[in-house]
């Protein structure tokens, strides 16, 4: 009799896991409490995989030999409690895919901020150097789908803490931990250590032959490293010129001190800002250990295009540059954005506040921001925080009006920076929608003015 695998959730992760499970000969069933998107429904039908939507039928779930759950489903969900009560093993799609990725190598990247940029850059550097490589996890197609399609030599995975929570035997060849700041604490019983433990699950199964690249200036990471046994080779990355680290920024350029020593200036890359020095140093270190030569690394760095909504230049009008950093939904991300520019800033912020402590960016705002434009339904907290610091504070709920407003107060050489520090759900579907509307509004105005 075939082993029964039940998949909870039918997004890219769940559908990919279902297709792989079916290909491996399991009896597969997909259950989603929400509505299944048409494209995934069509795929499940094509592969003759039974499914249900809008409901979890517990009798059809608790007779499984294995449950693969979407990382978005919390442990406190009733369906998970029922599965656990039935003593059924629950894993994540990443763990399931890993069990069938025999012989392939993995670079896995986690951290609170900067994961996507570092993952995309690592993938690009390997791909442009001619490696057989797939992009998966939180970006690209699910790992399970790609393991099912064909066997790649390398998988580059962006992993959230939720995905790491569902791993058991998962073991990357190279692990990258960029930073840890408070986030998603509602999933971790509002206990920071639980969240930290989740991130460190990245290296739980790694051996002494593998590399663990981490940002050494992060106090939380540093504290963990000094208090827990670390088995893989430690490769600290630092922004401090005097750091005793094989990878650091000496104030002028990035220094890589491996079997060979080489230097890369940030101006030789397409990324700006101190946070992108960290991301670049981590990605370059990873691909160097994967076997990419320094010449190919330099070439790859020149041609990298980052994902949209991350310090994305969306147009220049009358000498004023407009930057879309809509992905910056917390204060930590805004710190990076403000640190990326020396010029006068017109800063656009606002939305659904996630408990922000604006004191963290007060001095940078005071130094650089000449006008704050609040984009949100409730801007009182922002106005209270910066009303006495920024010379001009305006507000609007219209993106088109916002772009005109920004251009009116800007002078040639200024930068208009959309880096909201807040979630987008008061006025937009998500941060992508906010960023896309901003980009479109800038390009429309540019067309109108320049013809």
Structure, explained:
The protein has helices spanning about 10-25, 40-45, 60, 80-85, 95-100, 115-130, 145-150, 160-165, 190-200, 220-225, 275-290, 295-300, 330-340, 360-370, 380-385, 400-410, 430-450, and strands at about 5-10, 25-30, 50-55, 65-70, 90, 105-110, 135, 155-160, 175, 210-215, 235-240, 245-250, 255, 260-265, 310-315, 320-325, 345-350, 370-375, 390-395, 415-420. Helix 6 packs across helix 12 (about 295-300) and helix 16 (about 400-410) crosses helix 17. It has about 450 residues and is α/β, with parallel strands linked by helices. It is globular and about 75 Å long. The protein folds into three domains: about 5-85, NAD(P)-binding Rossmann-like Domain (Rossmann fold, 3-Layer(aba) Sandwich), CATH 3.40.50; about 95-300, 3-Layer(aba) Sandwich (UDP-N-acetylmuramoyl-L-alanine:D-glutamate ligase); about 310-450, Mur ligase, C-terminal domain (Protein-Tyrosine Phosphatase, Chain A). The protein is about 35% helix and about 20% strand. The strands form three sheets. Strands 7-8-6-9-10-11-12-13-14 form a nine-stranded mixed β-sheet, covered by helices on one side. A six-stranded mixed β-sheet has the order 15-16-20-17-18-19, sandwiched between helices. A hairpin with a 2-residue loop joins strand 15 and strand 16 (about 320-325).
